[in-house]
Structure formats: C-alpha cells, structure tokens
C-alpha cells in the first residue's frame, strides 16, 4: 500500500481522467495545473511532490520554456510525457535531459507513467530531503560534525557563560568571526551590541580615534564629537579582529583600557567607564610576533584568558563533504539547471586538496561550480580541482593511514555506522575500532548513518 500523502502535480492542457484515477488509486493526491505559476502555487513549501509534465497536450514551444523555472524546484521529481516528434526539438530535449528523471513517449500506458513518477518522487526524497531550516542552512549557522568541531561547539557554549576575554586563533577562513558572533549570541550580552573592528584594515593614524573616539575640536576637522567603537560596544561584546596586526602604539592604549575599564576620547579630559566583553582573533602566529617584538606580551596575556583554536578544514574529515553539500543546498538556486550533488571525483578532490583558504575557499569554489557546471553533478573540474582527484601519498605512513581510514569508512558505511558489525568485518575488536575512530577524527561516522552514499543528512549537524 502506498502512503496516501504523496502529491502529484499534473501539468496538462488535456487531463486524462483515466490517468488521474490511476494515480488516486495508488494513494496520490492529484493537482491538475496548466501554468508555471500554478505549479509554484500547488507545490507546498518544504514537502516533496511528483511532477508529470504533459508536453504532448497542446503546449506551444514558447509556453514550454516558461516551465523551466518550476523544473528546477528541488523538491519536485519530474517526468515528461512527450510525442516522439516533439523530441526532435533541441531545446525541449535539453529541458527533458537536464531536469526530468524520466520521460515517456506516446503511446504510453498509465501503469508506466505512475511507476515513473513514483520513482522520480522517491529519488527526490532519497537524495534531497525537503528543505527546512536546518538543511537550507541559515546564514551564520556553523556546520560541523567531526570531533574537532564538536569540541569547538562545546568550547563556544562554555566560554559564552563567562565574561572573560577570549582569544580565537586559526587559519584564514576557518570561521573565527562566526565563532565570535556565536559566543556573543549565546552570552548574557546577546541583546547588547556586537561591535567588530578590523585592527589590520584601519590606517594606524586613524585607529586611536576609531577605537576611543574624539571630542569636538580635538584636531583639525573634528567638527563634532565621535564615539569610538569601544564605547559603542558598551554592555555588549567588542570583537578585535586581526589583533595580530594592531600597531604597537595602539597596543599600549588598548592595554590601558583593559586595565582600567575606562576610555578617554581624543581631546577629552574625562574617563568614561565602559563595560565590554573582549573577543579577539588572528591568523598571525602570536608566539613569533611576541618573540619578534611586534606584539606586547602583557597585552597578549590580558586578551588570551580563554583560547579557542579553529581547526583547519583539511583536518575536518567528512565535514568537508558535509559543508560542500550544505553550501550546494544554500546556493543551488544560482544554478541554471537542476544539480544532483557531487560526482565521485569531486568528492575525492575535496578530500585530497589542502584548502589554504579553508571554509571561505570551499564556499567560493562550490558557488562558482554551481554556476559553471554543465552536467547534473558538480565535478572536480567544476571545482577547479581536477589535479587533486588522484593523489599518491608521499610516504608509506601516509599511505597506510589513508588505507586504514578508507577501510574503516567503507565498513561503517556498509554497516550503517554499527560499530560491532564493522569491527567484525575489519577483524578488530570494537574497542580498537573506537580508538581508531577517535584517532582519525571520525567519531561522527559511528551510529546513525541513515544516508548511505552520502547526500545531505535530514538535519545538518550544527552549533
Ligand atoms: N563551520 C562553518 N559552517 C558554515 N559556514 C562556515 C563555517 N565556518 C566558516 N563558515 C563561513 O566561512 C566564511 C569565513 O568565515 P569567517 O569570516 O568567520 O572566517 P575567519 O576565520 O574570520 O576568516 P579570516 O581569517 O579570513 O578573517 C564565512 O562566510 C562563514 O560564514
Ligand atoms: Mg575574520
């Protein structure tokens, strides 16, 4: 017995009562529509539907192209019904090839059509869960499920409970700013301002006045009083981004502020008490900066009471794929055609590449690939990572590690994350397997692998 909730969007000028009743008998709810606008109205947001596009029912070519926007809807599995003659038309062939799971040509049997649409519906349900908040990925959400990211999420929650200064270090594009915002939003200061300042981007001679503000007449051109960023953050969080690039003279004034909790505007004589929580971040190696005398040790120790390290993307194991799929969901509307996901060579390249630009680079590559891709799946070439499809490990130790990782991954996928069964197949104890999972940062693979073959899980793990 088929579930009674499946929806069929039947696009036609000439509905077949016989076909509609056959669908109903198989548990479908049938909506007969004629235009692209009706399709968009009929398909309920967030739920999956089957679509039958009856091109043989007196639609003109200029009308058919208007359906292209509906054919890209991620939650509808389409089947086209055409005449053999219509398929001579190149643009119609392209439409069918790019967007439909299947097509039937006249004379078709009702049974064949119902089966095909059922299959298309099933494919959409399998591969691309109906979009909801967590899969479409609200901007600002931190996605991650590897051990390193789970540890990061725990740290964020813990440091959010306190008022102590936090120092975030990590390579470029790893998510330092996202982390700072996450801490603020989970802290008691969440309703007060979060004020970022990029210490590296402001010319050194303007930095003092940006940070602390000035009084009217403090210098030529100071026509009115200006509140500095530190004061603007009163009650909230001040995010000192790229703190490693802060010039030495500003370091002295910042240290004074941290010691006294008061600011003095340039040209002012008053000390104004300010209550801010300080979060700072940098990709600079601070130990070297201190040894070389570019950064004051006393300031560093004030700023770095609690430390958070952002893991580089290359150390996040399966998360690389998770993030790539997440970004594809978020930006798939930019695609000119319906994209099914990533090809196996793209997945291999995602893992082999070393990601110097980390998550930011991943986002850019996926976005570019979405626009440039000419097939149904994003390939390594679309990601401009063709040369990373096959990487020969440089040392024997690396080769062993990669083989061990792959064997574990495959065993877990085959046994849907069940440790006992996977361990048995690998000929090791459960305890050893667990230890290896920890060592490879693969603990997220344990347990609920409901999505073999790996499309986006129903709910993306996130903070
Ligand atoms: N875990 C994550 N999940 C989803 N998006 C992420 C994640 N980490 C980072 N991003 C995204 O990657 C981009 C870069 O993040 P962010 O600006 O926080 O990095 P950063 O470490 O401050 O980079 P930089 O050193 O270049 O300033 C942003 O678009 C951010 O939303
Ligand atoms: Mg940043």
UniProtKB/TrEMBL annotation:
A Pfam family this chain is assigned to: AAA_lid_14
Cross-referenced CDD domains: AAA (cd00009)
Alphabetical list of InterPro entries matching this protein: AAA+_ATPase, AAA_lid_NorR, Homeodomain-like_sf, HTH_Fis, P-loop_NTPase, Sigma_54_int, Sigma_54_int_dom_ATP-bd_2, Sigma_54_int_dom_CS
Domain Sigma-54 factor interaction: 142-371
Domain of life of the source: Bacteria
PROSITE patterns, A to Z: SIGMA54_INTERACT_2, SIGMA54_INTERACT_3, SIGMA54_INTERACT_4
Keywords, sorted A to Z: ATP-binding, DNA-binding, Nucleotide-binding, Transcription, Transcription regulation
SMART domains cross-referenced by the UniProt entry: AAA
Family matches, as Gene3D superfamilies: 1.10.8.60, Homeodomain-like, P-loop containing nucleotide triphosphate hydrolases
Protein name: Sigma-54 dependent transcriptional regulator
Organism: Paraburkholderia kururiensis
């Amino acid at each position: 017995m088929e579930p009674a909730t499946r929806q069929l969007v039947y696009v036609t000028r000439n509905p077949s009562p016989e076909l509609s009743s056959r669908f109903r008998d198989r548990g479908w709810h049938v909506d007969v529509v004629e235009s692209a606008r009706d399709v968009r109205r009929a398909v309920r947001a967030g739920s999956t539907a089957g679509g039958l596009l009856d091109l043989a029912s007196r639609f003109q070519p200029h009308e058919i192209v208007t359906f292209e926007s509906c054919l890209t809807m991620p939650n509808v599995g389409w089947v086209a019904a055409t005449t053999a003659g219509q398929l001579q038309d190149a643009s119609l062939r392209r439409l069918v090839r790019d967007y439909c799971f299947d097509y039937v040509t006249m004379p078709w049997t009702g049974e064949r059509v119902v089966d095909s649409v059922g299959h298309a519906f099933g494919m959409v349900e399998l591969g691309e869960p109906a979009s909801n908040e967590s899969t479409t990925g609200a901007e600002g959400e931190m996605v991650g499920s590897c051990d390193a990211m789970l540890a990061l999420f725990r740290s964020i929650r813990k440091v959010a409970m306190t008022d102590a200064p936090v120092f975030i270090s990590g390579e470029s594009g790893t998510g330092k700013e996202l982390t700072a915002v996450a801490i603020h939003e989970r802290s008691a200061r969440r309703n007060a301002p979060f004020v970022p300042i990029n210490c590296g981007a402001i010319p050194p001679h303007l930095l003092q006045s940006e940070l602390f503000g000035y009084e009217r007449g403090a210098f030529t051109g100071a026509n009115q009083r200006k509140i500095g960023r530190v004061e603007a953050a009163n009650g909230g969080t001040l995010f000192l981004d790229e703190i490693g690039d802060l010039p030495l003279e500003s370091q002295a004034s910042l240290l004074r502020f941290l010691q006294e909790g008061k600011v003095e505007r340039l040209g002012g004589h008053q000390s104004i008490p300010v209550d801010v929580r300080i979060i700072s971040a940098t990709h600079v190696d601070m130990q070297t900066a201190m040894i070389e005398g570019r950064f004051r040790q006393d300031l560093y120790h004030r700023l770095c009471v609690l430390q958070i390290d952002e893991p580089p993307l290359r150390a996040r194991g399966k998360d690389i794929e998770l993030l790539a799929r997440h970004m594809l969901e978020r930006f798939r509307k930019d695609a000119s055609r319906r994209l099914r996901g990533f090809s196996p060579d793209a997945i291999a390249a995602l893992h082999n590449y070393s990601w110097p630009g980390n998550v930011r680079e991943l986002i850019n590559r996926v976005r570019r690939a979405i626009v440039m891709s000419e097939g149904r799946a994003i390939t390594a070439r679309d990601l401009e990572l063709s040369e990373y499809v096959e990487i020969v490990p440089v040392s024997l130790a690396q080769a062993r590690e990669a083989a061990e990782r792959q064997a574990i991954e495959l065993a877990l996928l085959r046994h849907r994350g069940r440790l006992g069964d996977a361990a048995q197949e690998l000929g090791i104890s459960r305890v050893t397997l667990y230890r290896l999972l920890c060592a490879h940062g693969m603990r997220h693979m344990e347990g609920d692998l409901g999505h073999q073959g790996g499309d986006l899980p129903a709910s993306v793990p996130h903070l």
